[in-house]
Amino acid sequence: MISNTKGEIPKWLYGVFLRIGPGRYDFGKDFTVNHWFDGFALMHNFIFSNGQVTYRSRYLKSEAYKKAQELHTTIYTEFGTKAHPDFYNNMLHVYQLQGNFYSATETHFIHRIDPITLHTKERVNLNNTIPVHVLSSQPLTDQDGNTYNIGVSFTNIKYVILKFPPKDTLTEGLDTDPVENGSILCQIPFRWKMKFSYCHSFSITKNYIVFLDQPLVMNGMKLIASQVRGYCYKECMDWNPEEKNRFYIIDKANGAVWKTQFITCVPHFALNHINAYEDDGHIVVDIVTYPNAEVLDKLYLNKMRASQLDLSSLPQAQRFVLPILKKIKDVKCKQGENLVKLKGCNAEARVSDGVVVIQPENLGPPGFDMPQINYSYIGKKYKYVYATGLLFDGVYKNGLVKLNVKTKEYKVWKVNEYMTFSEPVFAPHPHACSEDDGLVLTIGLSFKDNIADTLRIFDAKSLTEVARLVANDTYMMDISKLFKNAEAHPDPIEVPIKGVIPDWVRGTYYKIGPGKFDLPSGFTITFRARYVESEAYKRAMAVGKPVFTEFGTKSYEDSSKNIMSRAIHKIMPSDMTDNAQGNLFVMNGRLYAATETCFIRQIDPDTLETKEKFDLWKTVGVNFCSSHYVKDRDGTLYNAGAVLIPTVKYHIFKIPPSLKATDSKYEKSPFRDVQQVGNISSSWKTSFGYNHSIAITDNYIVYVEQPYLVNLMKLITTQIKGKSLKECMDWCPEEKTRFYLVDKKNGSQKKIKYETAAMFFYHFINAYEDGDFVVVDLLAHDTPIMCENFLLGNIRNCQVYETPDHPGLRRFVFPISNIKHEPSKVNLVNLNYTTASAEKEKDDTIALTPECIGEVGFDHPCINIKQCLGRKYRYFYAGGLYGEDTIYRRSVFKMDLQTREVKAWRNAEESIMGEPFFLPNPTGIDEDDGIIIATASDVRPTHRSLLVFLEAKNMTELARVEIPIDIKVLNHAFFLPS
């Protein structure tokens, strides 16, 4: 249905705005999934044309969803819900590959979707072409059109970096699915024995892939025992605060993994990379980090429904700067010298005991996540990131955020305390003259049953609302409303717009996230929003319980199986879920939903129907994969994943751009072109670091290995012990966080070891090269306590952000030149705009100390991707989180990283802001010339969720769309231009 608007939508805005996230949690009266991550994928799209908006939603028809619908239980083990094997619920991300759209979670299963109707098409098993089992749901495409991803291969026991070449490099007349064209660029051994790091996203630069290996790990032994013990995936995860995060840098050209160990000075947990870029001999990686994985525990459904959302610490956008040092012996510095030499950068990288210890620089106050930038700036130096403050306490709480990563200034736009915003999406002006020349699209998420969710469009420069979809006006406080089942609405709905949306905004805004928590006899379904019809969703709907192990929900037996099958199931590892509710991405014109396994689902961008599922394990060999696919300037999509067999590694891979997005010869095999860029060995033999995102710069992919470890032994035993995925993860704070720079051209890894203290992070903000340094900005926690906070029980009880460990922006600076002759214990960083340091240790490791920029308490950052991704940037936008003690509280804000100024937009105290999205003005010149789109969820039952449009320069509202249907707290957003 054609949307009525308040305000005026710019007529240049033509395209499809896709969103995906959890939508259904309850199945009948007897079963509810445990964790927010386990909700079945619900897709939303907003189609923009000539100043008008059409909206629809649809569930992803994954196998998990169909079975759960049929049997009223989950058949597949989900993140926090134990089930029968298969990780099919693609609820994390939607991305495009060679004209196809896919819904992805963090397994090797993806679903092809129709971006218009949102119908679920075929399911794709990436493992059919690449040996990958776990995969980031957020692949990245570089300027050359190559798409990269990071996954985990149980076959190789390594992380695998996947590469999908651009469509125009394929053999003429070859009838392939772009997913099938992927290859393993490199493999990275696990840091820990039988444990691998959780990877939700990664970064790319012009020449490198940045993979963050973090101390939130999947325990292989727990995973093995999961079938016997009935673990869900979260129960197979260990937070190892004694470990530190490690950045792996993979050369995109040859897949070479730098030998230099970049280790964080403290452990962080990160879900989302913001961006990465090369800058004057540095790789700058911006990530949203948490001090621990507590956030995952807070997302248990019983906590969320009880509005128990507080975190002990907030997510922080942080800049990690890695000196471009392929080998630690190349370091030439004085003892204790900071290797980060970027002007004005406070991130540190110092050599200590043969590793580079990195200390990030905080990018503004903490409290936002789900960052987005102007896509044209992926892997490039950038200024702005847009994000959502969600329910994190602080200045961004419930706000849409624009952060200038150069000045650290931010803007926050809020509605009220009953509404927050989803992940923003930046839509560039077709004639953009600056990075923030465009619009930011987001959804205002209402906390209350009687308040509609609202689509809002913001001018990206000012972060002022341009237009919105409208609803009614009564309220009642109840945060748990956001974490109840959502309704699927496959038919467009008429909604009015308040304000004026610029006429250059043409496209569709997509959101994805958990939508179904409870199954009949416990699980209930209930927008055009449409559930991602993943195998996990379908089978959970059929059985009434999850049959695939999800992040925080263990799997349950499929009663439809015979006794022998169920007996075998008890002793065999569970399959990965395809519940792709983590992220959305576009690959070669096609829309995909991703989670953090090797499965992604293609989504019809118009109808939101779930299409094919793809298995990255078969094409690139990764078992777990970041849900953040990063698109380079040339259209290449990058991502990273963990490979488990025969050795634990991280694979950096890419998907090249297609010849023609509409070429029919690629309809069946969109992932055939995936190519492995390089691989990084895990620091642990039986574990790998959890990774939610990667970053890219012009030349590098930034991968962070954080000591939140996936313990393979726990993973293998999930079914036996009845554990979820999270219960297979170990936080090892005694371990370092390691950064890796992978050359985008050849996949070679920087020989320099970059390390910092253990940290937990989800999101990069950005990364870029600055002379002889790579600067990495990310949002980090001290621990992964957020993982615990996201247990649905914590969320529904409003305990999700009770921890003080809020994420904050940490800027790391990596020296990338030869450090062999550099003195030890001397800061090698000479950038004048950061205090981050990098000191050479005795073993040539670069010890990184980040610059903590601004206050903590925000996440979901975004930037002007088109202009700044992977490049030096000034602004980013993010959302303030739930907590009451941060300046970003319930806001969407803009931070100027140059001046550190923050501009925030808030709707109301009752609003919770989702991840902002920066849409650049097509004719804009400035970095912040554009619109911020973000969602604001209102907890008042009579108030609707909002999609708000803010002028990115000043964070003033341009328009808003009030959705007459609740839009739950969603993960990530994507804008598909027409």
UniProtKB/TrEMBL annotation:
Its cofactor is Fe(2+). The keyword Iron applies. Fe cation binds at residue 200. Binds 1 Fe(2+) ion per subunit. One of its GO terms (molecular function) is metal ion binding. Keywords: Iron, Metal-binding, Oxidoreductase. It holds the Pfam family RPE65. InterPro entries: Carotenoid_Oase, Quinoprotein_ADH-like_sf. GO terms for biological process: carotene catabolic process; retinal metabolic process. Transmembrane segments: none annotated. Belongs to the carotenoid oxygenase family. This is Uncharacterized protein. It comes from Strigamia maritima (European centipede).
